[in-house]
């Protein structure tokens, strides 16, 4: 059995490395090499209650901040695991050589939005890049050992699925029943593999084996309006959604409060700027008004991102304010600036022609992260058998709003857990070099880690396996239409801004429905459209866009990143996860109650 | 301002390559070459100077902000990231775009840089030993972790040629960290490879230092890794760097 991992960012690398540690062969499939992944753009840091700053920080504090930041829409069990295992993940990163900012052999931690204590390990404001470099190097060990095989210029086309049969090989249920019954987890459809397209040659290949989706967020649904990369087109999520995979909390889209417009995208101004002392203001009566400090004296500009973005929107709407919101970093001591934020300063100087050490810089909220995505269980299993998801493409840890510093943590942990569950279900898995029960950092596990390859009797050699090439005509292999993507992006942005209402979202929904109808008439799948058999990537993307708007319409409350002017209050009735799935060719939205665990303390 | 763009188009499967010329107008001083390519490539009606449809142009990109290295190409003969090259910089209004020359061309501006991954596997650039954090922040290690693997350094290097034994700065950067940080026993293998594939082939032209779009301190990394590897002067680099 070889496991197919789609995406070579942090979640994908974490999954590949962990699978290899268990001796399970895997393919790491990505459009471009890992260096180009969005994880490399992560800036501010990664959270873990290491308590190196003498503040008595504990995983329990991390848990509470994460739940509160997520407006309690997070699955408490998931957050418990995330925050309990965060120190383990951080110590793993240190051991594989991430050069975090350090003092006395301990990582220095900085404060991030929504945190009561200093908990974010960092390396200037290029933390993602530095973690990625260490992970890529760690993964290389397993590539040389022949356990991980890279396919670096390959695009995901579709999942290969088959009905689950009984022991005599008969289909357990009829096809019509199958389409209806995708809703119960691991029900009647099993993923048997994946079809990928070589972007250099245009040929397609089918690979067998379980599939782990680590394909990132859905930024491509909002072209040019996000802080993400062009690789995260959202097409993987759109395709698997059309193939019957269940999605959750799609309406929860994070607007980062400090971004700047640059050609083709929005550029992030790291939360570290505020963590190190940057403050937001807007001009009122000819003087700067530090509105966050006034309204939230305890945390000021370091409130969770949903709160800050909303406040920015509101102060701009006021009649007595003028100009844009500005980020004032002039109070940060010079030494701290040069040591901790020099890369951010270079970027701001290049794009805005302003020196943030001397001048405040104009900032705006911009789309940054998708809390929602593929619905996964405790083992990171998605709703089809043998399908897993980790990283930003899945919906697991962040509730209605993600805290800064938790995204890389969630991606690393998600990839690890997905691999651990595959290993637990596999008969060929060996004891991991970092076995689940052992705390890394433990002397025995360190020794094993070093000799991992030898332990498995693997001689170091570059794998020379050539995949069997198949020539298949699959309409899904076509790229999405950029003009249509642009059009959908504008519709979504208009309907799903920072403040939403029934009317705006209904208009968006109608426009998307019209585009779906048009595609059904004239698109590649026109005439022979068969329910449940996706044949047109544009149609899949439109259906995903529809699902996002419908999810937002159905949530008649304001919570976290989802703020409605017509339902301004949080409502206990909606303390549930929004579920979106395709049924009989139509998007259906429902709610699933959360598991109960009160936020302690 | 109106810019004349000459782009080398090629299709490996059809065995053809030719320069195609088109015009692009913008008054935005921040407009960069990558965004220009995205704009014209996404417009199915965009025409070249002779009135032919431009069609989809092959190029790689991801972050659009000089952080991922995907869009490296030759711009007026210089190896650069297209997203970091503003049109307004080219005051004469004429820009020639070509793929990097040291790598096999796939299509238009796309080249196959997988040799860079292979080189790193060849020198076994991965840790033999787990490490702990140093007493103070290791700024040199942070710099060495910022390599984009874009290939610009190999493009300009007078000593690098694919298939030859010298592997160039892109393979040096990750190896340098290992040479500097691991114990002599653990670094034995990578040390041997470092000497054979990196130290011995480098003619010290420093061309890599000048071209690096991430502005890595490549000369320092070379110097410190050489000092550690060849003259066994390990550990001094940090002081020297600070």
Write the layout of secondary structure elements.
The complex is a heterodimer of chains A (601) and B (242).
Chain A: E1 3-6, H1 10-21, E2 26-29, E3 46-47, H2 59-69, H3 76-95, E4 102-103, E5 106-107, E6 109-110, E7 120-121, H4 127-144, E8 148-151, E9 154-163, H5 175-180, E10 189-198, E11 204-208, E12 211-213, H6 235-242, E13 247-248, E14 253-262, E15 265-268, H7 272-275, E16 279-284, E17 287-289, H8 291-295, H9 305-317, E18 321-328, H10 334-340, H11 342-352, E19 361-362, E20 364-370, E21 373-375, E22 387-389, E23 394-395, H12 407-425, H13 443-450, H14 452-455, H15 482-495, E24 499-500, H16 502-522, H17 537-554, E25 563-564, E26 576-583, E27 586-593
Parallel strand pairs in A: 1-2, 1-12, 2-8, 12-22, 21-23, 24-25
Antiparallel strand pairs in A: 3-7, 4-5, 6-7, 9-10, 10-11, 13-21, 13-26, 14-15, 14-20, 16-17, 16-18, 18-19, 26-27
Chain B: E1 2-11, E2 16-25, H1 33-42, E3 72-75, E4 78-81, E5 94-98, E6 105-107, E7 110-111, H2 114-122, H3 139-144, H4 152-156, H5 169-181, H6 188-199, H7 207-211, H8 218-230, H9 236-241
Parallel strand pairs in B: 1-5
Antiparallel strand pairs in B: 1-2, 3-4, 3-5, 6-7
